[in-house]
Amino acid sequence: MKDAGVTPKEVEYYFNGAATPTFASNYVTPNMQVANWFGMKGRASSHHSEACCTGYVALEQGANLVASGAYDIVLTGCVETAVSYAIPFKPAFMRRESTMEDLIPNLHSIWSKDYTDPSKAANAMCADAWLDEYAREYNLSKETVDDVLCAMAKGCREAAVLNPLGGSKETYDEIAAQHDMTADQFLRSPFNPFASKYLRMSNFELDFDGAACAIVCPTEIAHQFSDHPIEVLGTGHSCLEGSTARLEKYATAAAYKQISQLTGLSGADMDLFLANDFMEPSQLLAAEECEYIPRGEAWRYYLDGRNRFDGDHPINTNGGRCHYGHAHGASGLADVYEAVKQMRGEAGATQVKHPINYTMLRGFGGGQNVTCSILKNAGQE
After folding, report:
1. Under DSSP, is residue 237 helix (H, G, I), strand (E, B) or coil?
2. Which residue segments constitute the domains of the chain, with CATH numbers given?
3. Considering only CA atoms, which of 35, 78, 20 is closest in space to residue 336?
4. Contact 173, 183 (CB under 8 A)
5. Closest CA to 281 of 145, 172, 185
6. Residue 336: CB partners within 8 Å, gap ≥ 6?
7. Is the distance from CB of 56 to CB of 371 less than 8 angstroms?
8. How far apart are CA 67 and CA 1, in angstroms?
9. Cβ neighbours of residue 288 under 8 Å, at least 6 residues apart?
10. Contact partners, residue 190, CB within 8 Å, separation at least 6
11. What is the CB neighbour count within 10 angstroms for residue 242?
12. H/E element holding 16?
């Protein structure tokens, strides 16, 4: 609200999103429990939870509510305590460290017990499925895929270290030097073992506590609150239950088709691409599925450094979920924050070198919601 120049009295409705509010905060309706904390007593609100896609859905919810004409000033936010849990019967600020024993029932609550064994949907081999299909389609050896994923990890790690909000504090070059190795040697060493056919430990999410929010208002009044507003052109949205093979691929394709038809824009029109990648190959695969990169070429782009923040096709300029960090339900709006900073030219050390007129954000979470949103740089006009 401070960044937007909006006071609590001006906010007419707010959304509160979290992937696992009952596990993390012992709240069933957290929008109510936090209302008094930031001046929202008596104000209309609702809570929503779409696993790791919650933050991307938050943007869609806020934009749709404003577009409907029901409200002019909407706050849409998410918070997730992914590494600390509330203590039952104690105030929510009193925390304890979360454990694997906490995580297992949490994950089992995401997938339907009626159609699939949840344990089969929440492991690295599930994430390998789309990547394995991609490798076979373009005749890539396991060694080549490993080269691509290690290059991806190095670039994203550097971006995360340069980002003041990033969770990673050392680049792989710096870590490797402590073992008298190069970064390439370290990433292929027992310090970074395989956890599946393709994915090493550097390709998995880095969990954090975090929060992010945005103020959404009608385009025609946005300049009252910002001299550089960003316009939400729309969101495509598809959902598939966790037992669906390669659900991320098919839902991404459906969401992308919707947003392309809605806006008349394609991935090729984008200047920046952000993708939820709690399994790191997601950013490569989603970028191709959304036509940000030509089919069959993304793996070459990563090897050539073209997807780094200083490349010509930047992806996940904040470092992504595996290196910037993953606050589950809040991560989508953290990507919105990164997109807005980049589009305003305020991203600092990782600022993209070319002007950004359009950004696409591909959200994904929990074997269910997949979104594709397009932001326009209204400040360029």
Report:
1. strand
2. 8-113 (3.40.47.10)
3. 78
4. yes
5. 145
6. 55, 56, 59, 212, 214, 361, 375
7. yes
8. 20
9. 134, 294, 295, 296, 297, 298
10. none
11. 20
12. strand 13-17
Residue count (the chain): 381
pLDDT in tens, the chain (381 residues): 998 999 999 999 999 999 988 877 888 899 998 899 889 999 999 999 999 999 999 999 999 999 999 999 999 999 998 788 888 888 878 888 888 777 777 777 777 777 655 555 455 556 688 999 999 999 999 999 999 999 999 999 999 999 999 999 999 999 999 999 999 999 999 999 999 999 999 999 999 999 999 999 999 999 999 889 999 999 999 999 877 888 999 999 999 999 999 999 999 999 999 999 999 999 999 999 999 999 999 999 999 999 999 999 999 999 999 999 999 999 999 999 999 999 999 999 999 999 999 999 999 998 789 999 999 999 754
Residues near 338 by Cβ (< 8 Å), separated by ≥ 6? 274, 317, 318, 347
Rounded CA gap, 22 and 34, in Å? 14
Unique residue bearing structure tokens 């923040």: 309
Say whether 15 sits in a helix, a strand or coil: strand
Report the distance separating Cα 147 and Cα 322, nearest Å: 17
Q: In terms of pTM, does the model score above 0.70?
A: yes
Give the pairing type, strands 44-48 and 13-17: parallel
Give rounded-to-5 percent helix, strand, coil for the chain: 40, 20, 40
DSSP output for 296-316: T-HHHHHHTTTTSTTSSS-B-
Residue 279, beta-bridge partner list: 204
Q: How far apart are the first and last CA of the chain?
A: 24
Q: CB under 8 Å to 250, separation ≥6 — which residues? A: 238, 240, 244
Tokens (6 digits) for 110: 């995401």
Residue 204 pairs with which residues in a beta bridge? 279
User: What's the CA gap between 217 and 71, in Å, rounded?
Assistant: 8
Token code pair at residue 14: 């707010």
Q: Distance between CA 80 and CA 58 in Å, rounded?
A: 13
Task: Count Cβ neighbours within 10 Å for each residue of 341-365 and write b for 16 or more, e otherwise.
Answer: bbbbeebeebbbeeebebbbbbbbb
